[in-house]
Amino acid sequence: MRSEIIQVNTGGRARVCDLTPDCERFVSDASDGLLSVFVPHATAGLAVIETGAGSDGDLLHLLDGLAPLDGPWKHRHGSPGHGRDHVLPALVSPSLTVPVLAGRMQLGTWQSICLVDTNLDNLDRQVRLSFLAG
Amino acid sequence: MRSEIIQVNTGGRARVCDLTPDCERFVSDASDGLLSVFVPHATAGLAVIETGAGSDGDLLHLLDGLAPLDGPWKHRHGSPGHGRDHVLPALVSPSLTVPVLAGRMQLGTWQSICLVDTNLDNLDRQVRLSFLAG
Amino acid sequence: MRSEIIQVNTGGRARVCDLTPDCERFVSDASDGLLSVFVPHATAGLAVIETGAGSDGDLLHLLDGLAPLDGPWKHRHGSPGHGRDHVLPALVSPSLTVPVLAGRMQLGTWQSICLVDTNLDNLDRQVRLSFLAG
């Protein structure tokens, strides 16, 4: 299995960061198999959504409503809202698997692989890409 | 890796479509390995739930409550509610991996693999099944 | 592919059970590859969260708010709230894939692999661990 870490700087605000170009590059020399995308952080997740037409903002707004920053979170380390960030990965999983054929991810036309990160206390994030050939 | 696409017609209403028979057939000649189920659409997801006892309707009702059709979605292409459809895959992921032993998925008794699709603008859907032997 | 089932007793209350030690042991002799964690039950899921700082309780509280025990669930078998338990796996998936290098899961410092189980009618649960080398 081939595996590498990419670095993402989220810039200090809640973000939906498109990782698709990094994933495309990572599998471009590959054959057929499964791409595993994995975020080794406890306050971020991965979503496969359309970007650039408003849905990235819609998703952050949805998450603010489902798990409000000022909710009665017991986890109170870090900045306000950090307790909320810690339940996010239960709804938006940090693990994703994508089929790859002849070095191309089999995504749909409007799908992008996105890091969803509402944590404002940690701007330098890692994402692990792994490819298992088959 | 063996991979194929199956076609699903959702019939023009929000649907939970049971894909289990298709998945069973796809792996029936396989040995041990992982089945990847992947939906190449930006407005649908996959859930492993019990079907036939009301939970499929319960799930659609739940999603209508969490992400209402008439919410303040910025994504406003397509029919009313299409903005909601575009955040669905962040909560109900389009990617699922199921362990297979001797050609049989290791599902529990009451588990079915289901396409969750609330998009009324695209009735002809595809689902990619891939099997990685190990 | 190597595969085994572990047993978990949830003790008769809603629980977030840390499976990380079991997963670590399972892959400790492995090389590189993907670990598949799969719950063969229709009323439980898997989350990768921090444990021990309040987020496990926060998650159960969040789920109680998103999908209330006394909601208008059509699925009415079992104890009160069982209809709610049956939609949980659509939000908290029973399937998870984790990259493994040289016998070590590539989790982040604060990540634990957890069974999320709100079902009070079935205390003896199984979780399937499978490792696909690559």
List keywords for this structure.
alpha+beta, five-stranded antiparallel beta sheet, 4 helices, Jelly Rolls, homotrimer, 134 residues
Report on this structure:
3 copies of one chain form a homotrimer. Chain A has 134 residues and is α+β, with helices and mostly antiparallel strands. The first copy, chain A, has one domain: Sandwich (Jelly Rolls), CATH 2.60.120. Chain A has 4 helices and 8 strands, in the order ββαββαααββββ. Chain A has helices at residues 20-27, 55-66, 82-85, 88-91, and strands at residues 2-9, 15-18, 33-38, 44-49, 95-101, 104-105, 112-117, 124-133. In chain A, the strands form 2 sheets. A 5-stranded antiparallel sheet of chain A has the order 1-8-3-5-6, with helices on one face. In chain A, strands 2-7-4 form a 3-stranded antiparallel sheet, sandwiched between helices. The mean pLDDT of chain A is 95. The interface between B and C is medium-sized, with 34 and 34 residues.
